[in-house]
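Posting here for the record, re: manganese (II) ion.
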Amino acid sequence: MDEVFDASQFLGLPSSSGPADIAVIPLAYELTTSYGMGTAGGPRACIQASAQVELFDSTLNGDLPAGANMVTLEDFEAQAATLRLQLDEILNHVTPWLRGQCFPLFLGGEHGILPPIIQATSSHPLVNGDLSTLTVVQLDAHADLRSHLNGEVFSHACAASRSLDLGIGRLLQAGIRAYSSEEAQRIVSDERITTFFARDTQHPHTGGTAWAEWLDVLRELNGPVHFTLDIDGLDGSLVPATGTPVPGGLSYWQAVETIEVLFANPKVTVISADVNEITPQHDTPLTQFTAACLAAKIVACHLLAKREGRWQACEAATIVETPLFSFESFKQEGSSP
Ligand SMILES: [Mn+2]
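Prediction output follows.
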């Protein structure tokens, strides 16, 4: 029997009653995007474009959602007057979805959504209040390791450095090809960071070797992981409408391989993921459709991980109560009090 098509839902798939197995959570957030504009409309454009994604997934060898109850939330837009208060709003919005009962996939919005998502993972039973157990795997053109951009410490250009400040244990990056000297120094000096530069992995002669090393790092990983996919990690030709498209990036199949290898690691539980910096493209849906295809691949690889025992829903009784946290009163590492 054909499912009823619902254009407001990811992949057009209506949710069923009962608890969600997968939650697709649009975060229409745009406050600090530096170059292009339009990330606020990106999540909805991605959901609309996802109607054209084939439900048959070759990794899963079956049709999505493979019996799972996938729910797509309504667009969330922060309303508060300041950026920090908006981050607190996002934190409150996402926290209930990061307690391990379902798999959350966030659609952004600018990459500035990452710190509140990371902070919210601390209440996940596998993180258990200790963010040093968490690894963030990032595909991105930019290192996002600035201490600030034009004085703003919560700029999207600082998403990774703020996640480190929150206390994550490791940061693995690939696709990186646009960064400042400050960021280059932090990559060298901070032992938690492992960066694979696009100039190495995309090198016309030796790129294959560097790419194989990236996959090996993913295979050796263990513990809980959040996967963050800034679509500008892909080559700019695939995502020309994103805020800052950059040439020389990852191919579509390298992004797919990263997702497949990460979710296939038996020592890893990918507890959450986001696809961000999606911007509606108007002359062609290429940008939002590319994002939708990769978001669907994340869902498929999660379902395969669940089927093969690498992910299971946590019992409600194991929900971790973490101390109250506020970005409003957050102090950046190394900043004066
Ligand atoms: Mn980014």
